[in-house]
Design a protein that fits this description.
Elements (H helix, E strand, L loop, with lengths): L15 H5 L8 H5 L11 H4 L3 H16 L10
The structure holds zinc ion.
Zinc ion binds next to helix 1 and helix 4.
């Protein structure tokens, strides 16, 4: 099955959250959106370079933001 791939930025070596010393928060919508694909799915840490600890917290933050309708569950194309 062929799928359109979203443009992928080269993976950073260091986790952006560790580097900035911040935790992923549901209120930080602009930052969360950087980790969503074109279809508003959460990107894997393989592409974003986020560490395991922050990837888990990021997923929770995105889900909370979705529940509060800050981020869409899916984007229609
Ligand atoms: Zn981290």
């Amino acid at each position: 099955m062929k799928q359109k791939k979203p443009p992928i930025k080269p993976r950073s070596k260091e986790c952006a959250f560790c580097k900035a010393k911040v935790e992923p928060q549901w209120s930080d919508v602009e930052r969360l959106k950087e980790y969503l694909s074109a279809r508003s799915k959460i990107m894997t840490s393989k592409f974003t370079g986020v560490c395991v600890k922050h990837q888990k917290r990021l997923a929770v933050a995105v889900k909370r933001a979705r529940h509060l309708a800050l981020i869409p569950f899916t984007t229609q194309e």
